[in-house]
């Protein structure tokens, strides 16, 4: 298997072939005219215009189409059905901390491909798709549309941000603000009732970021995909190693048992904090590793009973 530091635009586009295998939402027939996430076979006065038909006793007189009635000399009424599709909004983190991988693809590649695959799956389900691709420096947003060109635009943004990452990038001081800033912008941009998928390592999980996430979760279905490399949860066997997170370099001696134990405990605590936060605000939490292709992991996620129940 070839491990990659960068994604390929062709690969991001080819992920469309797997879109039908990712059952983000399963089509269902609504039991009432106002339930479920999809168009119901029942019709009534709702949001979306369906048709004009001959007026029947019991129809709401407020829905009479007077133009058609005048033209046909027979009462006709407008029939509506509830709009059941929901926008899917995808946030893809391409900050410098994701430009790392020890035993597989870089975290930035996993984020890029997982976000792209989910965008194709949403479009295949006739949902509107939008998103934000971001780094420490800036972000690009796309408002949700039910169009292939919108997904392609999102993929181009993901690809551009992914290839802007570099080990020679001028180091910048660690910051907790950019992630929170993007989430704050998402709160203003995303309409209630959306599905929001976030692909990140969540290393900038500040209090302000948590406030925005809880706000998003109060009106939307939020899915947090935590991308992690095995080396971030457990140090390698005893020895001398040089590490970099894309911003800083350091050499450490892993022969110290206490160091290895403390490192593992901190990593476990970080993930447990994320899990507890998701449970508190009823968000779905899914870990993704750099050791497996992103699409294979997503197939496992969206075929599990947990994801069906949460999403």
Automatic annotation (TrEMBL):
Native organism: Zooshikella ganghwensis
Residue ranges constituting the DUF58 domain according to the UniProt record: 51-272
Coiled coil feature spans: none
Classification of source organism: Bacteria, Pseudomonadati, Pseudomonadota, Gammaproteobacteria, Oceanospirillales
Protein name: DUF58 domain-containing protein
